[in-house]
Write a structure and sequence with these properties.
The structure is a single chain. This protein has one domain: copper amine oxidase-like fold, CATH 3.30.2280. The protein contains four helices and six strands. A four-stranded antiparallel beta sheet has the order 3-4-5-6, with helices on one face. A two-stranded antiparallel ribbon has the order 1-2. Strand 4 and strand 5 form a beta hairpin. The longest helix is centred in the last third of the chain and has 23 residues. It starts with 20 loop residues before the first helix and ends with a helix. The N terminus is likely disordered. It comes from Bombycilla garrulus (Bohemian waxwing). InterPro entries: GSKIP, GSKIP_dom, GSKIP_dom_sf. This is GSKIP protein.
Length: 140
């Protein structure tokens, strides 16, 4: 059984590419590993959704990764992450539907904001709490 696992913890960390800026900055474009980007996206907003994880069944590559998300409203989506941004590619986990023509969003915040009013509320409240904490810090 062949499985493509998108867990960056299992990637070898001694590839040598990080040290050599010629590889990182090929023809003026940053070469990003979308698996790592996807993990960062998940970690950023996991607190504001029911469930979110990088797909372990859909293929990950340097230029694309898939993220499954379940909103607080219990709606499931499969998101595609590319250099163009994030977009919904299916209305269930680990699926893609080529007929779906959904717009790209530059950020996961923008995408979730458009999909989930509950996300918007939770994220907004977290932001307010953070600002209140900063305000207290600067006043003391």
């Amino acid at each position: 059984r062949m499985e493509t696992d998108c867990n960056p913890m299992e990637l070898p960390n001694n590839t040598g590419f990080e040290e050599d800026s010629d590889y990182r900055d090929f023809e003026g474009t940053d070469v990003k590993d979308m698996r790592l980007e996807a993990e960062a996206v998940v970690n950023d907003v996991l607190f504001a959704v029911n469930n979110m994880f990088v797909s372990k069944t859909l293929p990950c590559a340097e230029d694309v990764a898939y993220i499954n998300v379940e909103t607080r409203e219990r709606n499931r989506y499969c998101l595609e992450l590319t250099e163009a941004g994030l977009r919904v590619v299916a209305y269930d986990f680990d699926q893609t539907d080529d007929r779906l023509q959904t717009p790209y969003h530059e950020t996961v915040y923008s995408l979730l904001d458009s999909l989930s009013p509950a996300y918007r509320e939770v994220f907004g409240n977290a932001l307010l709490q953070r600002l209140e904490a900063l305000k207290k810090e600067t006043q003391s």
